[in-house]
Each structure stands twice: as C-alpha cells, then as structure tokens.
User: Fold these one by one.
Assistant:
Number 1:
Amino acid sequence: MKYIVLITCFVSLNVAFAKPHWKYKWPTVIPSVADRAEFDPEKKVVIDASLKVFVECAEHPSAADWVKVKISAWFGGQKPSIVVTPYTDVLMPAGEEAYVLSAKDGHLTLRARTLNGIRFAMMTLRQLAQPARNQFKTSVYEIPEFTVRDRPQTPFRAMHICAFPEISLSRIEHTIRLAAYYKFNYVILESWGVFRSKKHPWYGLKDGKLTVAECRRLATIAKDLGVEIIPFFNVFGHACATRAWSGKNVVLDSRPEYQSLFEPLYGFNWCLSNPNARRVICDIVGELHKAFGRPKHFHIGCDEADPPTCAECCGGDYGKLVADHVLAIQEYVRKLGARPMMWHDLLIKRGDPRWRGFEVNGTDATVRLLDVMKKDVIICDWYYNAPPKNGIYPTMDYFRSLGYTVMTCPWDNLAGIDAQCGYARKHGLGIVGTTWNHLMQRQVYEFIPYQASGAWGSQCIPALPRGYSLRVTYGTHWRQVGWETPGNDVYAETGFFTDQIGTSIGER
Ligand SMILES: [Zn+2]
C-alpha cells in the first residue's frame, strides 16, 4: 500500500513539472480581420532579441524605424533585428491601407503599400502576442506561426470623441490611442467648453483642459499613430457647449456681458444677426484648426438648433440668415485649407413623410441651406436606433443623390452599427462612430468594438462576441494602450470608469 502511494506522489510531481504542450488560442481581434487569417496553433515564434523582422513598405522604406520604436515600446524593450526588404506585391490584398503580416521560422514579416498599412500590421501583432510564461517580469512575447491578409473596406473611419469637463485629458488621450489601435484613421474631437481660446478666453471654462499646447500634443500623438484629429466647433446651435438639460451654459452662467452674442432664450444658438458672433466663431475655428496642426477636415456641428428668439433674428428672414452664416463659415474653413463637415438633421424638414422614423430637425428656414451649399461639404448623417425593417436609409440616399459625400454615424445600438456600416460598405459612405456621453458607460466595451469592426469592413453580428467575452477583450486592449498614456497610473484613470462602486458607475 505504501509503495503505491509513493508511486502516485512521484507521478503527480512529475506531471506538475512537465513542460506543458504549447497550444495557441486565437483571440478576438478588433477590428475583425476583413480578409483572411491562417495559423498553426502548435508552432510558435518568439519575440525577443533573436527575432528577425522583415519590413516591406512601398511608400515608406523608413517605416522600419517606426516598427523598431513600437516593438521596443510594446514588447518589453525588445530590440530584434529589423531588415528592410524591397516591396513585393505578392498576395497583397487591394487598397492603400492593406497589409500582410506573417510569422514563420523565427521571423516576422510586415508588408504594406503605405506606412499606415505597416501600422495596422503592428496593431494586429500587438493583439496576437502573448507574454511568454517562463519569466518573472515580462520581456519576451510569443505568437504562433500565422499569416494575416487584411484591408479596410471603408476608407474614412472616424471616431467622434467628446471632451467633456468630466473627462480627463488622460482619458481623452487614452481614447485617441484606442481609436488608432482599432484602425480608425480619424478622430473628431469636440470640445464641450474645455478648449482654451487665446483670442476669446471667456468662451469656455476657466480651467478648461484643452490648451493650445495640449491640442498640439494630442495631434502629434495621433499623427504618429496614423490618425488625423478633426477639430470640431458648433457654429449655430449648441453654442452653450453643454448638454442643455443640465441647465449649464459655459459662457452665460458667469459672463452676462456676452449675452448679445447668443439668442436670449437659454443662449442655445449663436445670434446670427450679430456680426460679432460670426467674428468670434471664425476666430475660434481658426485657432482650433491651427492648434491641431492644420488638418484637412473641420467639423462645424450644425445640429439641433432652436428657433430664434431675439427680435432681430425673429424680424428678419431667418432662412437667409442661417444660409449666409453657415456658408460664410464653410468658406472660412476652406480658406484654412480644410474640407467642411457638418451634421445632417437641419438640412431636412421635420414632418416630411419621407424621413419618418429618422433624425430630422430642419424647418422651412434651415433646409434652404441645402439649396445653396457647395458639394464638397461632408454630411454626417446620425442615426442611433435599430435598423429600419426595409433596410433602407432614405436620408443618406437623399444626400448622396444630391452629390454629397455622406458619413453614416451610429452610436450604441449594436444592430444599428452593424447595419449602418454594412450600408456604408455597399454605398461607398464613410463612418463616424459616435460616443457622446457614453465613453464612461457600460455599453462602451460593446459599441466601440462594433463600430471599429463595422468600419474596418466586417459584419459584426454574429462575428463578434457579446457581453463578458467582448468586455474582457476590450478591457485587455484598453489596458494595453493605457500603458503608454501619461496619467493612466492613477486609480480613477484606470479601467472604463473612475470608480468601481457607487451610484454613477456605468449608469446611462
Ligand atoms: Zn439673434
């Protein structure tokens, strides 16, 4: 009996110290690979100093330098040998942003036509790599032998981020880094009273976080990651720079001397009869454009304006005032070298049966703008609900039929995101994923991955998991990009929310 027990002990010890078989489990990659991925789960390639990395980039032989810096930053300071090889078009998917990423026989190959393609290959690599087990502090990573061929099917992929006073700078930067990690190529950054204008410091909060220096810093970070930050400024309604139901107005709550620039009732609209208002708007638009490094696009808002209430706006032809005002701002944006973007809902009339069920806020006055606008304006059509039963989005079709470039802008309805992104792929639209006040809400771990995958080019349902599986995947990615975000080592900045218990956690 004793003898048997001893043998049992010996066997179990032996089992405990036996080297486990290496078997790689392919993770959920976000955005989902749109073309093809193959891998061998039992053959590994190690990311350490012995790794050879071949970089083939048609546009940018110096892409190798970018790869070198990021491998060191993302993979425990590793400095593998980087070999620049001539670009070959073999087995490359179509498109400027396509890439092929493969690992085999102890080396890694990144191939792309453009630097952005190389960047995307690296984003995928980061999601696939696992820290090796036989170490105390992580510096070595492992991947299986694999090949990924991938490409976006929508060229314009933007994430709209709101810089509320309640959102820290660290969290804004963190989200920009996440947008890049999820292969968005644009971030539309909307200041909610936090941009510190030098010309008009009264427009905004005294302690607003987005100083010019900070905007420049964020633009530089985004550019390095292949993302253009598109500045945003509300030039018509939403002039209070707050969510109106909060009762707040970033100017008039403390500065009654500026009342004449805004409509008397609440100050929600800029006053279009006061030429000083347009002067201020142009000044701030110019400042924002410069602060973000003179990008090629500028978003002028233009959703949800109130009817006029000042005697001059009420006494005049408000439609003409609106058209003249918005056209002048659009022309100013062009002069800055940028293409104007705007929301769609004031351009179509409320009550028109053609748009029933869709987002419509236009009046007889505001829809006249559409008759006179130049066709280079990009119309951002927002719709946050479940897909229509017939699968048709008549407002987007309407703007397209008039010759405008149209973006579909979903929010947090997962079926809606999936359907609208599919519509965008089918009809050649762009995608603007909105986040609004839900950046620190429970839904964030589902709708952002859905937006990213839909924008990149895959059907999300049923390809992406839901609930727990998606939360832990998104949480891992969110944490990874947090590692290079300054300020993210403070408790309130970690995770999706500032706190983990309390009444405000993840509530809508
Ligand atoms: Zn007025």
Number 2:
Amino acid sequence: MATFDAVVLGAGINGITAAARLAKGGWSVALVDDHDRIGGFIAAEERTVPGYLHDTWSSWHPLFVTGSAYAAFGPDLHRHGLTYANTDGPLTATVTDNGTVALAHRDVDATVAGFAEPGDRDAYRSMIDRFGAHAAGIGGLLGIDLHTASALRPISTLARSAGRAGLETYARDALTSGRAWMRARFAGAETDQLWAPWLLHGGLTPDSASGGLMVPVFAATMHGAGLPVVVGGAGNFLTAWEAVLDELGVTILTGHKVQRVVLRGGAAAGVAGDGFEIHAERAVLTSTTPNALYGSLLPKTAAPSEVVTAAAHYRPGRAAMQIHVALSGPVPWADTRLAGVPLVHLSDGSSSTAIACAEAEAGLLPRRPTVVVGQQHVLDPTRVPDGGAALWLQLQELPFAPYGDARGELDTADGWDRKLIEGYAGRVLDRLAAHAPGLRDLIRAVDVIDPISVAAYNPNALCGDPYAGSAELDQSFWWRPLPAGGHATPVPRLWHIGAATHPGPGLGGASGYLVADRLTTPSRPRRLLARLGRA
Ligand SMILES: Cc1cc2nc3c(=O)[nH]c(=O)nc-3n(C[C@H](O)[C@H](O)[C@H](O)COP(=O)(O)OP(=O)(O)OC[C@H]3O[C@@H](n4cnc5c(N)ncnc54)[C@H](O)[C@@H]3O)c2cc1C
C-alpha cells in the first residue's frame, strides 16, 4: 500500500499528460495501468517480419503537436530523443474506385491548383483562412472543460474574432453534416473526396452532425501541422515520456489491473485491485469509459442514479480493424504520385464512405470499405529494411457483432473467427491491389488485429470502438462524457479524463492535461492572496 497526492488510472496519452502536469505542479503521482508498458493505444512492434517496425495502433501526431501538452512538455520530450518526421509536400490523397486521385499538399495553393472548378479554389482558401482567423477561439474550446466558467474565455475570443453572426454560423456548422457542408460550398468533388473520409478519424460519418465544423478543423490542422510521425516508431514517443515522467518523479505502476476506486467518507481516496491498494490524498483521475467508471469501478450508490443510468447508456461507435503489411518493395501504385503520400484513403468520398458506415451500423460488412492506407515509411524510412515498404491499413466501418455481409460473400454466422478475419482482410487487400497492380506479389507477411482483439487489448475500446465511445454530436463537446457534467464527477476528488471525455479521442492529451492544470493552478483568490503576501 502506497500513498500519493494523486493516482492516475490509465496510462494512455491522457493519463501520461495528467501525471506529468500534476508532478510538474509539485504533486506526488502514481500512474497505474494494466499493461506492461505505458501508452494505451500507442505502441510499436515488429508484427510481421523482423526489421519491419509497425505502429500497432495510433501513428499520426498532428493533434499532439498542436495541443497544450506538447506546448508544455515538447522541449523535454525532444531533449529525451523524440524526433518527428513530417511532410512539406504531399499530405493526403483519396483514390476513387475509377482511379481518380484527389491530392492535398501541405501548401494550400498547391492543393487548389489541382481543383477542376475555379470557384472551388477560392472557396477552399477561404475555408482555411476562416479557420485561421478563429483558431484561437475554436482551439480554446477544444482544450477546455466546457462545464467550467473558463469556457467563457474561448467563447468570447471567438465572439470577438467572428462576431455574433459568425458565432451563429459556427453553431449551424456544428449541426450540419460534413457532406452537406461541403456540398453547399464546392461545385467539384475534390474537397469532398479528400476530407469526407477524414471524418472517420473523428469517429463521425459523412452524414453525422458536427462534420460541418470538423471538416475545416481537419483540413486546416493538417495543412498547418502536417502528419508528423515519430522517427523510429511510436515506441520512441513512449521512451521520451518515460524519461520525462522519471525526471518529474512520477511512479509508474504497470501490470496493475484496477478493479475499484477506493472511497473514504464518500470521496475518492485511491484505487485497488487484486493484491494492491494505492492511496491518493488529493485526487484520483480515471481514464476509462463512463460505463466502467460508474458500472464497475464505483459502487452503484456512489453517484446519483441519473448519472449511473446515463453512464449505462453511453454507447460505442463502430468497431475497427487494423492490418499491418510487410512488403518486399515499394507499393506499385498505378498513379505514381501516390508513392510519396503519407496517408491515402480508398474511397469515392461521402458517397461510398457514407454507405459503408451505414452498412456497418446495420451490422453488415461493407461492400466497398473505406481503406486508410498509411505509408509511414515514406516519412521515416528507418522503419523498414532498405528497399522495403510497410502498410498501416485501418478500417473504421465495421460491426462488432456482424450478422451479414453486404456483398453476400462472407459467412458471418460464427462472428469474427479466423476465416472471417482472413476473408475480410482479403477484401481490403484486393481493393488496394486494384490501385496497385502486382501488390500481392510483394507481400511478405500480413498481421490483422480484428475488432474482438481491439476490445480485448483495451477496456476503453468498447465493442472494438477505437475512439472510446461514439463521437456523434449528442455524445460530444458539452455532452461528453455525460450530459450531467464534464471532467469533475459527482464523487468528490474523483476526475474523469481520457478519450471518453471532452475533447474526445486522439493523441492531443488535452483532457488529462487540462484537469491536472486545473488541479495544480491556484484559484484566483489564492493567487491574489499570494500576491498581497508578497507586497
Ligand atoms: C488503431 C488506432 C489508430 C489510431 N490512430 C490515431 C492516430 O494516428 N492519431 C491520433 O491522434 N489518434 C489515433 N487513434 C486514437 C487515439 O489513439 C486514442 O484516442 C488515444 O490514444 C486514447 O488515449 P487515452 O488517453 O484515452 O487512453 P487509451 O490509449 O485508451 O489508454 C487507456 C489505458 O488505460 C488502461 N486501463 C483502462 N482501464 C483500466 C483498469 N481498470 N485498470 C488498469 N488499466 C486500465 C488501458 O488498458 C489503457 O492502457 C487511434 C486509435 C486506434 C485504436
């Protein structure tokens, strides 16, 4: 039994940033996780053939490098060896079934130069410029607890830069789907083809509300920050964090599965599991889903019944599959421009991606899945042997418990068994090979992580959902994790962080950082008293 100022449960990016910020504020901290290394959905492994290093889960760091945790700890992480590889040229592309390619470069002008409709060039530039003009307000809202008075600050920043009409426009955008938003503004197909598939990375579909807000956020963030990957693989990100946490005196306790939050006098006082109990004098932060927090980690009576009920209603989004492929040579793209693009989508834009999402939501394996093709070795060749290549394929339109195949070919009667996993991975590889003739001859090994394995790896991945809960509008922003509140919970000294809380999934680490920042930043009256004391 050990005692700390704070215990942080869950060592994903939010647990890490919380622990680091608390320790920097002078608190003693234990960071607890059931895996044998920190990171959660951050890891790198030789999953196919020795010499091929794959980012098992997350890989792209635009959200991290634009977030507050990076602003605070970036110099320390770089001092401990973190190096990014990024693109200055080709950024992302979409190849449609008929082989048409829409290509975005870091440079906005180079991107719009490829647009067929002259009017779309100005519309695209103004989408990026408008976000740039209001980035401080929008970024502020995505990095703050919306249930606190501090949320008024970014709102007033946004009101000052956008005006009342601008604020109202943003509210409308947040109620609009990405497909509808782009259809209203662009005559040609390029913007939709490029950015509709990116909505999947926010847990949305092209027809989900809030896409109208998120399309410009995705596009502007990526043009601005690129698609950084960690040189030498995501494991080096963790190595740098481990050194920073060590320097700050954080105690890392891996291999500890927490079964309950310890309560004393109704307030959180630690966490406990099989054979261990860790005490916290000042705060317990849990990076879990609301379902786990209120359903099993806390006694049912610890929180008001409406909170427990709302937590039980918190629902997962679609499931995901990850496929890693080792290739003996470069990807033989039919359109050779794609060879230099770090991240390519196979999609027809909103049309095919929305249908694939609808099929998955209906329990069917999509006929024409959107395939996310990551080519990290284009940015960081150290991950593959000389002359080799590797593919990081992500599928985000899958049912956790399939009951049919939209193509009527694969047998789903036994769920995700080996035959179905291989059959579906085959469909994905065929789809890719249609744009890269000869691809199959270059394959040295394939590693597939099916939805059941995603869920088994991380209890936050409810039903194989990589984003810890549906990110539809009713479960986002003000309403994430629950309508009843933000990061503060009804249990004194217990704080909720992680992808299931605002601002949601991704590697920004914002929820952990902002809660820890709030806990370690003296209140305004205290600051005033301290100043008076000094005078
Ligand atoms: C395949 C995949 C690809 C992705 N790609 C990207 C990407 O490229 N860029 C990006 O920005 N985002 C990406 N994401 C999303 C991003 O990785 C996640 O949103 C983010 O890592 C979640 O961080 P988190 O802090 O919520 O914690 P998690 O990463 O979910 O980690 C939580 C940790 O807590 C542990 N834990 C939970 N309950 C307990 C318990 N009771 N006891 C002990 N330990 C417990 C879990 O085991 C886990 O280790 C991807 C996600 C997946 C799955």
